Structure formats: C-alpha cells, structure tokens
Amino acid sequence: MCGRFTQAYTWRELVDLYGLTQPAMNLQPRYNIAPTATIDALIPRDSDQLELWPMRWGLIPSWWKQSRKELPSTFNARAETVTGRPSFRDAFRERRCIIPASGYYEWKPMPGGKQPYYISARDGSILPFAGLWDEWHDPESGEQIRSCTIIVTDANALTRPIHDRMPVILYGAQQTAWLASAAAAIELLKPAPDDILQLWPVSRRVNWSGNEGDAKLIEAIH
To answer: Which among 51, 80, 94, 106 is annotated as catalytic?
Structure first.
C-alpha cells in the first residue's frame, strides 16, 4: 500500500517536465500527506496537454449514493483487481491520471515497533505514480468533488524487505502510454526497476499527521 507520501517539487519543475501552460500555482512543499488530504494530480486535457488539478486523495466513484463517511478505503487501488472492482473499473477505462510525488513512506516491522522508511528516486527526480480520478456530486452539500487514487502493485527487490507493495511508478514514454489507452495501461502495472529508487529509515514522527511542512521528516536517522 501507499498510505503516506510527499509532494515537495516546485511549479517550475512541473512546467519543465510536463510542459504545463496553465496559470502558475503556489505549490508548498508537503512532507507527510495522508489519505483524504487534497493532493496534486495531472490529467490530460485537449490536444495532449496536461493540467494540474487539486483532488481529494481517496477516490469517490461518480455513482456513489451515500455520504463520504460511508465510503470504504479507496486511497489505493490494487493492480490485480483495478479493472474489475466497481469502485475503480470505470475510472481505469476512462479517467487515468498521473500523481507526481517526491517520495513515499513504508513501514518495516521491527521488534521495537514499525520503523518508517522514506523511498525516493535515486536521481532526486519526480516519481510519477499511476493514478485514477473521478468526479462526484455530494448529495449533502451539493459540492462537486474531484478525487483520485494511487495504484499499487507488488514490491520490487529493493523495497520488499520493507513492505510487500509499492506504487506503480511511470517513467518517460510510459506516462504517455498510461494516459493514452486502457489496453496499454494494463501492461504498465508492474513493479519499478530496483535501480531507480533509494531508501533510508526516518523518524517515527511521520506516524502522526498534521506536520506536512516538516522537511526533517525525510532526513535519514542512524
């Protein structure tokens, strides 16, 4: 699973990487994003142009008739079942997105309790997570809510000692293929190569939400 991650890039980095032409957004570094928070997601618009949209992390299907409180956990979608599970199958077919990340956390069981690790790109670049999005009308408030989920798959050899799952990470032309067609997207639901990531143990302060602005959360401990 992926239950906490970071988005600590700049607007200029996104523009350089994705050619964004929309008005600039004032992005603040976030080092401890938890489910139901608002996160950045990239979706395709007209003529292959990408746009960055704020979305709720935890997908709410457009057909959902109950309240948000009654929604089951949807912040991750399993690669093995994403095309068949009712919560995700329509979004996989029609509304795939990219969720840019700077890194993510996983917890390793230890004798003294679970130890968090921070996992990021070895070259310091943005990690593009494969995601799905949808738009839902809240019957209670009347609000239109855009929401998304991160797809997870089996861990690779590097991260498996920490946790048995990892986000689906897209690179280069894989990102275009992911957005282009559902048939091509299915082939990309695989673990990332071992040599593109790095990891280290971090403070257990990441266990508590509410400290998104604390850059020291991703510092290695010894």
So the answer is: 106
Q: How far is Cα 8 from Cα 149, in angstroms, rounded to an integer?
A: 19
DSSP class of residue 169 equals B
Say if residue 47's pLDDT is above 90.
no
Domain limits of the chain? 5-27+36-101+125-195
Tell me the pLDDT of the chain averaged across its residues.
95
What is the tens place of the pLDDT at every residue in 53-80? 999 999 999 999 998 889 999 999 999 9
Fold classified for 5-27+36-101+125-195: hypothetical protein yedk fold (3.90.1680)
User: Is the Cβ–Cβ distance between 40 and 99 less than 8 Å?
Assistant: yes
Q: Tell me the mean pLDDT in the region 215-222.
A: 95
pLDDT tens per residue, range 135-164:
999 988 889 999 999 999 999 999 999 999
Region of 210 (left: φ > 0; alpha: ψ -120 to 50; beta: rest) is: left
Q: How many residues can be counted in the chain?
A: 222
Spatial contact of 41 and 53, defined as CB atoms under 8 Å apart: yes
Q: Would you call 106 a catalytic residue per the annotation?
A: yes
Round to whole Å and give the CA distance between 36 and 54: 12
Residue whose C-alpha is closest to residue 132's, from 151, 153, 146, 145: 151
